[in-house]
Amino acid sequence: VYNAARTMRPGDLPSLLGKPLPGNHLLIVVGGGEEDEDESIGAALGKVDAEEVGELAIAGIQVGEGYVRRPELTARRFLCHPELGRVYL
Predict the structure, then answer these.
(1) Which pairs from 53-56 meet CB under 8 Å and 24+ separation?
(2) Cα separation of 34 and 6, whole Å?
(3) Record: fold of 22-88
(4) I need a labelling partner for 15 at 20 to 30 A (CA). Which of 23, 29, 52, 54 fits?
(5) Considering the chain, what is the average pLDDT of its residues?
(6) CA distances from 73 to 1, 2, 34, 37, 88 (A)
(7) pTM of the model
């Protein structure tokens, strides 16, 4: 999945995401992962604070409809964001 780009320079932190490509939105959100299967959709899309650990969520025109013949997994990983629409966790 190619959603962000960044020029890396010596000494840069490897964890920096870069800027989203045109038509893409990247969010760091609370929960939503396999280990958080019981987390509600609303909580899964809550933004994290600057020092918190979160999960990368991708939104934009490139996000697919879901997994082929895997409705349960699709329901867990493809969520609806109130402003951005379909989001992939």
Answers:
(1) 54/28, 54/29, 54/30, 55/28, 55/29, 55/30, 55/31, 55/89, 56/17, 56/26, 56/27, 56/28, 56/89
(2) 28
(3) Luciferase; domain 3 (2.30.38)
(4) 23
(5) 79
(6) 18, 21, 10, 10, 11
(7) 0.69
What tokens appear for 59 in the block?
């939104």
Q: Which of 3-7, 18-22, 59-63, 71-75 has the lowest mean pLDDT?
A: 3-7
* 31 neighbors 55 (Cβ within 8 angstroms): yes
Domain chopping of the chain, boundaries: 22-88
